[in-house]
Amino acid sequence: MGIRATVWGENIHERSNAEVKKIYPDGMHTCxxxxxxxxPEIETxxxxxxxxxxxxxxxxxxxxxxLIWWGHCAHQEVSDEIVHRVQERVWEGMxxxxxxxxxxxxxxxxxxxxSCSLTWREAGEKExxxxxxxxxxIVKGIDRYFEVENSEMYGEPFIIPTPDExxxxxxxxxxxxxxxxxxYRRGAGNIFYFGSGHESYPIYYNESVKLVLKNAVKWxxxxxxxxxxxxxxxxxxxxxxxxxxxxxxxKPGEAGFK
Length: 258
Description:
single chain, alpha/beta, Rossmann fold, 9-stranded mixed sheet, 28% strand
């Protein structure tokens, strides 16, 4: 069995904007999934905002090793219940790759615990993505840098927690720089944020971008399934003998007792 990747998208710009539809006639989520499917180690499926439970049922997430998230104009339309469901799966070991304007998604902000704000400009500028961690698996096969001909500028300050690793720093034609590739660990789950990918430009057809995403899926797939259920360990199952001291406030059946 290959790595099971689910590509989630809002699927709004592609249906409401003629120019975006020309670039991504089947939706950005489909384009991204097709790019991943080039690799025989990755099995892809797609899900969109408009589906029941946004296409992210418990069963779907249970059978997802890595979730790729693209959102922009409808962050607030994503159900809090689904966001919590995704968060719990990340804690359990599901990988999460957040793309471009997904920096403002509910799930990324919830996992980061910060505003995740940044500076931006939409002018079709050249973006040069510099590899700052050349030994990292996410940049396997990538040279010192690669370029995206036209991109939306994302710039510092980027209000995120200090990353576990910085993989890319982008330079833009207007002079700004941006931590465009960063990783985190939350619970048992690996998280990668990747900044390139504005809907008005054919960035997800870029071969280097496709390679980064394929590498990132393989890196993010932990293969773990850790259930955080806060178990109570009875005295008789302790590794060493214990003499009970004091009074326990927890009783079977009470809230907080498991």
